[in-house]
Every structure is written in C-alpha cells, then in structure tokens.
Amino acid sequence: MSGNGEPLGDRVIRAVRAEEWPAVKELRLTALRDPVAHLAFVETYADAAAQADDFWRDRTARTAEGSEGAQQFIAEASDGRWTGSVTVLVEEPGTTDWTGTVVEHKQGHLVGVYVRPEDRGSGLTEVLFDAALDWSWAHGVERVRLFVHEENARAYRFYRKVGFEPSGLTVPLKDSDKRELELVLERG
C-alpha cells in the first residue's frame, strides 16, 4: 500500500511532476484555507496566494519526481483530483535547520501534510506517510522528523499512531506563547 504509483481504492500515491505546478499551487492554497491551517502551517493563505507563478514553478521543480533533496507525494483520484499531499525535505548533517539548530543526522523532514476533509479517516494519510518514509529510507536518511503545533491534537495523535515519538525539542512560535513540538521516527 505504499510507494510510487501504489493504489488506495481509486487513489494513486505518486510523486509530483515539475509541470504540475498549477495543481501543487491549487492544493496548497486549498490547504491554507482549511479551518485548522493556522495550527498546521507556518505559511498563510494571503502570503501563498500573493506568490507569482515562477515561485510555484520553482517550488514544484525542487520537490518533483527525480529530485534528490526533496520529494512531494500526492494522492490522485481516478478523476485526476488531488486529495492529499506530504513533502519530504532531506536535511544534511552540518547544515543549519529552520530553527537555527545544526543538523546532526542525515534526516528527512516531513512538511505540508494535508488531506482534504472529505478524505480524512480513509487511511489516505497513512499511505502518503508510507510513500514518504519509503522514499526517505531509500535516500539514506537515519531518521525522519516533523513538527506539530502543541494545540493540533488530531495531528499529534496520528503522528504518534504511526510511530513518531516526541524528541523533547520544542520551538516557540513567532509572536505567540505557543510552541511547535518535534516528533521523530528512527530508521528501524
């Protein structure tokens, strides 16, 4: 049930292609309009919607099929509609991550997790994660991590259910007394 081109009912899980940037943009803007987007994403709808098409072309090209440093996986329904997505960013040892911390391990960083509301609870998120994890392990990462807003209980429960454990690292959110919690999954 995982990996590139694997079916889930009428869905196929696969990597995006560079020329699919308009669909990447549409799904991201949809995700940022979700009622819990403020808990799930650092980026706002207004900021993303203001980006020029070149931004979306470049963003998609960096995470498209065949990329070595990142990969975006989508769930595509038989009618061509994209119903979910997750992106893996590879972080190399010795680099500095978005928190200002030096990366100690070659690791995958899962970002942009989104499943349309009507497809939640169907097992789709698990299959997207399987594809992202399979790709990560195949690219030599030692662990995979993600961050979750401390008030995003639904996401936190899901991440724990699929094996992610709290690392103890917390990152304060800008202009807020809230935090993001790091969860990790070691290669097993």
From TrEMBL:
Domain (N-acetyltransferase) ranges: 11-188
Bilayer-crossing regions: none
UniProt keywords, alphabetically: Acyltransferase, Transferase
Keyword Acyltransferase: yes
Coiled-coil regions, chain positions: none
Domain of life: Bacteria
PANTHER family found in the cross-reference section: AMINOALKYLPHOSPHONATE N-ACETYLTRANSFERASE-RELATED-RELATED
Protein name as catalogued: GNAT family N-acetyltransferase
Lineage, uppermost ranks: Bacteria, Bacillati, Actinomycetota, Actinomycetes, Kitasatosporales
